[in-house]
Amino acid sequence: MINHEVRTYRSSEHLPREEQLAWKIAEVAADPVDIDPAVTDMVINRIIDNAAVAAASVRRSAPTHAREQAQPHTTEPGATVFGLPLQDTVSPEWAAWANGVAVRELDFHDTFLAQDYSHPGDNIPAIQAVAQHLGIGGKDLINGIATGYEIQVDLVKGICLHEHKIDHVAHLGPSAAAGIGALLKLPTEVIYQAVGQALHVTTATRQSRKGEISSWKAHAPAFAGKMAVEAVDRAMRGEGAPSPIYEGEDGFIAWILSGPEARYTVPLPEKGEAKLAILDTYTKEHSAEYQAQALIDLARKLGGQIEDKSQIRRITIHTSHHTHNVIGTGANDPQKMDPKASRETLDHSIMYIFAVAMEDQGWHHERSYAPERAARPETVELWHKIETREDPEWTRRYHSTDPNEKAFGGRVVIEMNDGSVIEDEIAVADAHPLGARPFVRENYVQKFRTLAEGILSDAEQNRFLDLAQNLENLSPAEVSQLSFAVDGLEHSGSKGIF
């Protein structure tokens, strides 16, 4: 890997394109390196993972409305939409939109956390939609997805967005554009323009994840994927982007991030180096914010040790700055303690999540968020006894670059009414690569079958899994079938412009 320093340049300073971050990203995307077998295996896992979550969410409001928005935009060859018959294809940017919402709706697919946050699986809907529309086979699709993951992970390692209250999809637009560029084997110049355009149009604030969190949280990455498809299309036609997009005097670093004096270091593979970043990412066993994953596992354990939870006086979760300030009491969001809060808000409340996981000794993507579950009096009582505190050591481990030290959990102290104290800690989720039960192919397949149960027929489940697990050898015609249809899928009846 090469560490690239990125800073603002005055307009009077000449910064050649070849030294701009967007160009260096484009060079990585255009580099035709071989795909490592472990990367191929993990791409397959994540395609299965995305489809699993999409199946579970396909009838929910946001995915339904996104699908209905896409349906009028029919085209041939086109791309498939989760839930619709495979022959009902739409324009690829609209397939990226509809499928992106379905994948993101339940906050249940993969994650990567470093200087910033990300769900790299959000790259897949846009890249796959373009592959289906343009008749591209499985091997090239793997390269496109591996590239999208590489660029997003590398940006997340080098540039923090959240400290400036910028949503993490600002890294997704460029990564998806780069992945599509790699898929199509476009020249560096074209990918460079697409990356710049994608960044420019996908920068948004983090208010979508603050206060009363709405369904836009699921739409935001889908919008970034849609914009990436359109950016690549424009760049292929010869249209340009603001330049230099990251380093310009009025650009991203100078006015969106830390200002003209800031320096960022972004690692990128050198020429000929394999794109391995997907191997640094991890998926979710539970449908909740990633920082909740390990704490759900600990709550399950501790809940089994306390028979009468009404005797708990107080629970304190000592954890990282991020967990405390984003999903903990440090966020100062009263909605995180409100039994009437939206599902999107509750999945960003570790106080609620920890209470329910203690009581149920498990977590379910629907039952755990049901309004009647959130309103249960004993749950509300326990929930309101929980607070978080930042612990500098957990913050340090959260930001560590050593994978053996990096941690996303915390230390939990439970004080009982009789004065006794129960204390335990967990560093990473059980499903994490370094956890107690790391996810392997069998777990991804089981997650798919569990979430698809009652939604997809057994035959449709088997058909999809057979295709996905043979991804490297799929023909363009077979890639076009890499989706699933749901029998009896109803429309919402809502009306908009389309």
From TrEMBL:
Q: Which residues form the MmgE/PrpD N-terminal domain?
A: 19-263
The family database entries (InterPro entries) matched by this protein are listed as: MmgE/PrpD_sf (IPR036148), MmgE/PrpD_sf_1 (IPR042183), MmgE/PrpD_sf_2 (IPR042188), MmgE_PrpD (IPR005656), MmgE_PrpD_C (IPR045337), MmgE_PrpD_N (IPR045336)
The UniProt record lists the MmgE/PrpD C-terminal domain at: 286-472
The text of the family note is: Belongs to the PrpD family.
User: Which PANTHER family does UniProt cross-reference here?
Assistant: 2-METHYLCITRATE DEHYDRATASE, 2-METHYLCITRATE DEHYDRATASE-RELATED
Name used for this protein in its record: MmgE/PrpD family protein
Q: Which organism is it from?
A: Brevibacterium daeguense
